[in-house]
Amino acid sequence: MVIYGVTLLSVCYFIGVLLGDILGQLVGVGSNVGGVGFAMILLIILSNKFLNDNHLSKQAQDGLNFWSSMYIPIVVAMTCGQNVYAAITAGPLAILAGIIAVLVGFLLMPLISKIGKPAEPLPPLTPAKED
Predict the structure, then answer these.
(1) Where are the beta strands (DSSP E) in the chain?
(2) What are the sequence ranges of the domains in the chain?
(3) Which residue of 6, 23, 43, 55 lies most exposed, with the fewest beta carbons within 10 A?
């Protein structure tokens, strides 16, 4: 199992949780608000920066590729640990913060989609030859 790159992942996770806790306190929820999202955005930004500056070894790149394939299960597992009930019962401010975060994400999609090089087109499908 490739474990390189886990330091970057764990640093991003701890910073994301800290930011989520601070945001939760600021909006009056008393629990983590968006910590996993902050962690994943920070991981994407830092890993792209390190890749562009050639600061990551091949093993670290392989480790980050492994963790990127585990993205959805990790996010689901971390989100299950958050207190959703407290966010819902905290009142309209918590719900408004969630709606604003989703809207900002939607508005940033065109900008995010322009990041990186365009992918090569897929080759045309050829029918399978029958024997």
Answers:
(1) none
(2) 6-113
(3) 55
